[in-house]
């Protein structure tokens, strides 16, 4: 619409006139035509605004008297006026006219009504600037429209949806953090009356609300998100059917063209569920349908969505919709690896937020703890340990048993995760006693199990046990007296096999110290062929006690070269392996120390 259009001559502005051919103006107000200056027009319009503002519906004589003026104010000259102050004053007059003449508007032409309401809607954009000198007048306009429900007149128009869409988009675009609660309240009243008293919500109008829930828009304008959220909660009984139809079109019938928001359906479902689950009463069965899709990627997307819905802290979806919950659990056994993996990841949040569902999850986690995929077995352990570290009561003995089994997994990454996880639980609940005696007894078996692993043939397992001993069973960073108490308690409470394993570990560590000590002694001797041969033998022996002996040989050789040239390093190493060393780190596995140096 061209706001710069030239106004028509004054004689053509009069619209409907009184019997004597003139428009009746309030006392003291001269004729308003295009012949006067803009400032003078604004001055006269302010007096007209005051007159209409003071009128009520019972002023029958005045209503009849000012009917020609009401029609005159709706002429193209005013609706297309280039001055924003003029347009604002005219909009305020029109809003009061709808209030005064309600329930019948003085404008009978549908085209004229459409032009008027589109014009008023455009003026509402002025609400955006709360510091504007005219803001109070924009607020009055909004308040008046909301109180009278003026836009409901548009239900009679065939193309009323165009007006409503423009109104909703305008209100959502102008709301900001400088507005008080009254502004939001009037916006809500205005929009909710259209939704609740109309014959239905079209898809385009629904989109104008839902677009504010999409993360990208939500982050840009939190106030528009809050406005949409409250609007949906207020109109849930009416709008739920429209929402269900939208998701049915996209999810079940695959008609993504019905809305520009089709690609965001899962984001929208998550947001709507958080606002009010009743908004999705008819949508949940559609998700069950999608869980059984033949498309693995589609099932994965639905599993990710439902994981958030079932796992959120205040959700009771699993108890309210058991068929959907059981269908979701079935995805733990999905043929598609990413779907199984996503299901396992969900279990951690579910155990922490909904411990009452642990029984349902246990059997599925048991199956997945033996999954052929290493990543899934690994994540089962992470899931259980994460929940147990949050609260040991969240994890039953059976779940901890799954972790225990995985300490003997064929894959090192899985074994390591299981061993480290159990070690962390032991330190938290046994050494620190964070959950009391009962919790300590529940995990007291961990120390024995971890030391038993020292019997395994893998050097990686042995070294990890040594690391766990120094960091979790008898932490090296404790004060000497506390470490001795910790060691005494541990040794006294181990089972016979664990005691043997611990003794073997110390024996191996002592033997390695001897090899290192002998290597240092060789460095003190003059260089000779026999000396080099003996040194090489010691290096190969030490390498066998390091991870990946093949690579370790190269590391050891390089380290030996540095050792030969650096007397200070040799002195430090002698101190480290000395039985009289007072350094706390002396009790940390020498092998681990050497490996650390080699790799760096």
UniProtKB/TrEMBL annotation:
<dbReference type="InterPro" id="IPR011989">
    <property type="entry name" value="ARM-like"/>
</dbReference>
<dbReference type="GO" id="GO:0007064">
    <property type="term" value="P:mitotic sister chromatid cohesion"/>
</dbReference>
<keyword id="KW-0498">Mitosis</keyword>
<dbReference type="InterPro" id="IPR016024">
    <property type="entry name" value="ARM-type_fold"/>
</dbReference>
<dbReference type="GO" id="GO:0051301">
    <property type="term" value="P:cell division"/>
</dbReference>
<keyword id="KW-0132">Cell division</keyword>
<dbReference type="Pfam" id="PF20168">
    <property type="entry name" value="PDS5"/>
</dbReference>
<keyword id="KW-0131">Cell cycle</keyword>
<dbReference type="GO" id="GO:0005634">
    <property type="term" value="C:nucleus"/>
</dbReference>
<dbReference type="InterPro" id="IPR039776">
    <property type="entry name" value="Pds5"/>
</dbReference>
<keyword id="KW-0539">Nucleus</keyword>
<protein>
    <submittedName>
        <fullName>PDS5 cohesin associated factor A</fullName>
    </submittedName>
</protein>
<comment type="similarity">
    <text>Belongs to the PDS5 family.</text>
</comment>
<keyword id="KW-0677">Repeat</keyword>
């Amino acid at each position: 619409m061209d706001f710069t259009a030239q106004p028509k001559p004054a004689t053509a502005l009069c619209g409907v006139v009184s019997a004597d051919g003139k428009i009746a103006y309030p006392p003291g107000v001269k004729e308003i035509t295009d012949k006067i200056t803009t400032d003078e027009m604004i001055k006269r319009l302010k007096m007209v605004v005051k007159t209409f503002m003071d009128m009520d519906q019972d002023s029958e004589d005045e209503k009849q008297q000012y009917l020609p003026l009401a029609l005159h104010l709706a002429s193209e000259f005013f609706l297309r006026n280039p001055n924003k102050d003029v347009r604002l004053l005219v909009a305020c007059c029109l809003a009061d006219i709808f209030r005064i003449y309600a329930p019948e508007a003085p404008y009978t032409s549908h085209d004229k009504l459409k032009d008027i309401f589109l014009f008023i809607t455009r003026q509402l954009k002025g609400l955006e600037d709360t510091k504007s000198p005219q803001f109070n007048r924009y607020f009055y306009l909004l308040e008046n429209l909301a109180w009278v429900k003026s836009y409901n007149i548009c239900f009679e128009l065939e193309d009323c949806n165009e007006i409503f869409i423009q109104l909703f988009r305008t209100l959502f675009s102008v709301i900001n953090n400088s507005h008080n609660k009254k502004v939001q309240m009037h916006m809500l009243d205005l929009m909710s009356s259209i939704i609740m008293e109309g014959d239905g919500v079209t898809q385009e109008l629904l989109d104008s609300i839902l677009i504010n829930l999409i993360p990208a828009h939500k982050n840009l304008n939190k106030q528009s998100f809050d406005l949409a959220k409250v609007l949906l909660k207020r109109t849930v009984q009416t709008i739920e059917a429209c929402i269900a139809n939208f998701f049915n079109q996209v999810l079940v019938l695959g008609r993504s063209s019905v809305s520009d928001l089709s690609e965001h359906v899962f984001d929208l479902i998550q947001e709507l569920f958080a606002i009010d689950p009743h908004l999705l009463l008819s949508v949940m069965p559609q998700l069950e349908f999608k869980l059984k899709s033949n498309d693995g990627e589609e099932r994965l997307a639905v599993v990710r969505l439902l994981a958030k819905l079932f796992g959120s802290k205040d959700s009771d979806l699993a108890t309210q919709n058991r068929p959907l919950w059981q269908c979701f659990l079935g995805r733990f056994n999905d043929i598609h690896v990413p779907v199984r993996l996503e299901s396992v990841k969900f279990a951690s949040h579910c155990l922490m937020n909904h411990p009452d569902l642990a029984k349902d999850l246990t059997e599925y986690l048991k199956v997945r703890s033996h999954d052929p995929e290493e990543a899934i077995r690994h994540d089962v352990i992470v899931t259980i340990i994460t929940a147990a570290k949050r609260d040991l009561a969240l994890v039953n003995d059976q779940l901890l048993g799954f972790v225990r089994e995985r300490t003997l997994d064929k894959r090192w990454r899985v074994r390591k995760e299981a061993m480290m996880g159990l070690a962390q639980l032991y330190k938290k609940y046994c050494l620190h006693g964070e959950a009391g005696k009962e919790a300590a007894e529940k995990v007291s078996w961990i120390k024995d199990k971890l030391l038993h692993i020292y019997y395994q043939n893998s050097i990686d397992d042995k070294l990890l046990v040594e690391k766990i001993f120094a960091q979790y069973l008898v932490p090296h960073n404790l004060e000497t007296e506390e470490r001795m108490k910790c060691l005494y308690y541990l040794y006294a409470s181990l089972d016979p096999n664990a005691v043997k394993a611990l003794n073997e570990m110390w024996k191996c560590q002592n033997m390695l110290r001897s090899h290192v000590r002998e290597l240092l002694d060789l460095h003190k001797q003059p260089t000779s062929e026999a000396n080099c041969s003996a040194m090489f033998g010691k290096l190969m022996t030490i390498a066998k006690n390091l991870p990946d002996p093949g690579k370790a040989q190269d590391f050891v050789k390089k380290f030996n070269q540095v050792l030969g040239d650096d007397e200070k390093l040799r002195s430090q190493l002698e101190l480290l392996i000395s039985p009289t060393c007072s350094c706390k780190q002396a009790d940390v596995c020498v092998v681990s120390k050497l490996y650390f140096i080699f790799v760096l």
